[in-house]
């Protein structure tokens, strides 16, 4: 099975084009204001409209209000939703849109128990835990903590780079991988050569 690839934290149209041209399946927009990769919904909508067919925009949220999500959907109506905070299953499902539910992996977290209430999610995403940040930290976690049998497709995130993504795909065999800082030259500034090399690493592991 071909591993899907999401390039997250997009802030520039050129980076979105580079991701799509290199073969990414999805690009992520961060709508959490404290993030250095935050993008306004209007700007995200303009970038999303320039995407080619079959490249999906994903809106990433951390404990948003209903109005915040609805404002994004007004500008990016075909976006998938990704919830990265402490949102309830009821909140995640209320927008009648496919959504990804994220968990920040830390010792003692039972992923099966954590994800059980989110059976309606299109996929479950596992990221590294950080005290004050929600994703994009460049920190990896122990991939052996991820159960091999999950009821929903697994998206692997957290500290993935050109140097380790092939090993990650071979060891975990996720449905998809999600990268942000691992293909950047600066916060929110993607590097086309890193994106291409990252995607090549995934494809190598798929063989």
Fold and architecture overview:
The structure is a single chain. With 207 residues, the protein is α/β, with parallel strands linked by helices. The protein has one domain: TIM Barrel (Alpha-Beta Barrel). The protein contains 7 helices and 10 strands. The strands form 2 sheets. Strands 1-2-3-4-5-6-7-8 form an 8-stranded parallel barrel. It has a two-stranded antiparallel ribbon with strand order 9-10. Helix 6 (165-172) packs parallel to helix 7 (192-206). The model has no long low-confidence stretch (mean pLDDT 93).
CATH architecture: Alpha-Beta Barrel
Q: What is the straight-line distance between the termini?
A: 9 Å
**N-to-C SSE string, H for helix and E for strand:** EHEHEHEHEHEEHEEEH
Structural class: alpha/beta
CATH superfamily: Aldolase class I
Major sheet strand order = 1-2-3-4-5-6-7-8
Question: Nearest-angstrom radius of gyration?
Answer: 16 Å
In what range is the share of β-strand residues? 15-25%
- Main pleated sheet: 8 strands, parallel, barrel
Mean of residue pLDDT? 93
Strand count: 10
Name the features.
globular, 207 residues, alpha/beta, 10 strands, 8-stranded parallel barrel, two-stranded antiparallel sheet
Summed up, what is this model?
With 207 residues, this protein is of the alpha/beta class. It has one domain (4-206): TIM Barrel (Alpha-Beta Barrel), CATH 3.20.20.70.
